[in-house]
């Protein structure tokens, strides 16, 4: 591949600027490398192919704590320009998916502000006809508006909620939006997970929601449960210090334990459990009102 052929390729495929998923060591900002067409040197924040008396080599430059540093694109010397650009195309293609997804970052934020916390009509007939915040036709129009030229699939399970996947032509997932009780509350972008607009860490387990907010369950974390409002703010959290019994510290799912009687109605209270222990807390305040350790057929 010649230099000109490579330049035509990256222009046609919108790969002139590559999103590498690396972050700079000074400010933690995303590193985006822009193609440099010079064969003498590559400037900071750029990538390209340079030529000297030893041959052709790939190079990239980024900001570092002690000045410019070598970026993620580099190579040993090649004997010909064509071989160097063949290798550069392979490297560029490896960042293609990340770059496509990253280019829709602002669109994702705008799209989520339209649908987050709202009920979305499924794409097929329903057992009953409730009123939805967003019709399926409206959902389609929003996707066409914010993600022009992309396809999407809508996976839906009427018992456990549904999921919207927005897919690029190259079969790269741009965005996944999950629902709880049909409300759009959980989403993934650039391999990061969010409840509303709050990024989740790796200990996230499960979530439920009701009219007052979203309950997010964590495993093996200081925060065991966080309740979010539908604007993304944190209403309250339960942490390890909330419990006295060590057996209650790592709930793995929301409990359906049959202690929800007239005293602890499921409308007012919610339980979390690790399979052998359950605690019940007030949905409104997060106050713990009951704890139980269970054995087979015993409370």
Can you walk me through this structure?
The longest helix is centred in the N-terminal third of the chain and has 14 residues, at 81-94. Strands 6-7-8-9-10-11 form a six-stranded antiparallel β-sheet. The protein starts with a helix and ends in a 6-residue tail after the last strand. The chain is elongated. By secondary structure, the chain is α+β, with helices and mostly antiparallel strands. The chain has five helices and 19 strands. The mean pLDDT is 85.
In short:
The protein has 299 residues and is α+β, with helices and mostly antiparallel strands. It contains 5 helices and 19 strands.
The sequence of SSEs as H and E is HEEEEEHHHHEEEEEEEEEEEEEE
Number of helices: 5
Summing up helix and strand content along with how strands pair, one would put the structural category as: alpha+beta
- Spatial extent as radius of gyration: 25 Å
What is the average per-residue confidence, as pLDDT, rounded to a whole number? 85
C-alpha geometry: elongated
Query: What proportion of the residues is helical, as a percent range?
Result: 10-25%
Biggest sheet strand line-up: 6-7-8-9-10-11
Q: Please give the largest β-sheet.
A: 6 strands, antiparallel
Distance between the termini: 72 Å
SS strand fraction: 35-45%
The total of beta strands comes to: 19
Low-confidence stretches: none
């Amino acid at each position: 591949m010649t230099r000109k052929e490579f330049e035509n390729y990256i222009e046609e495929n919108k790969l002139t600027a590559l999103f590498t998923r690396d972050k700079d060591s000074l400010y933690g900002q995303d590193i985006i490398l822009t193609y440099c067409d010079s064969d003498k040197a590559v400037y900071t924040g750029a990538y390209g192919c340079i030529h000297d008396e030893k041959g052709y080599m790939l190079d990239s430059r980024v900001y570092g704590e002690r000045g410019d540093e070598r970026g993620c694109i580099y190579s040993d010397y090649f004997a010909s320009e064509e071989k160097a650009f063949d290798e550069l195309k392979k490297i560029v293609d490896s960042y293609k998916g990340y770059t496509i997804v990253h280019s829709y970052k602002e669109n994702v934020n705008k799209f989520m502000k339209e649908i987050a916390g709202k009920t979305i009509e499924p794409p097929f007939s329903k057992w009953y006809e409730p009123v939805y915040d967003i019709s399926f036709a409206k959902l389609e129009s929003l996707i066409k508006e914010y993600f022009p030229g992309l396809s999407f699939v809508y996976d839906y399970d009427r018992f456990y909620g549904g999921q919207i996947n927005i897919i690029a032509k190259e079969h790269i997932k741009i965005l996944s939006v999950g629902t709880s009780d049909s409300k759009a509350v959980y989403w993934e972008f650039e391999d990061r997970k969010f409840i509303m607009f709050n990024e989740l860490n790796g200990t996230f387990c499960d979530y439920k929601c009701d009219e007052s907010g979203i309950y997010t369950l964590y495993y093996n974390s200081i925060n065991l449960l966080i309740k979010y409002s539908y604007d993304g703010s944190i209403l309250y959290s339960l942490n390890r210090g909330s419990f006295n019994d060590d057996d209650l510290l790592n709930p793995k799912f929301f409990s359906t334990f049959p202690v929800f009687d007239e005293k602890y109605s499921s409308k007012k209270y919610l339980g979390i459990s690790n399979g052998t222990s359950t605690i019940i807390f007030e949905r409104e305040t997060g106050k713990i009102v009951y704890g139980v350790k269970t054995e087979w057929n015993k409370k």
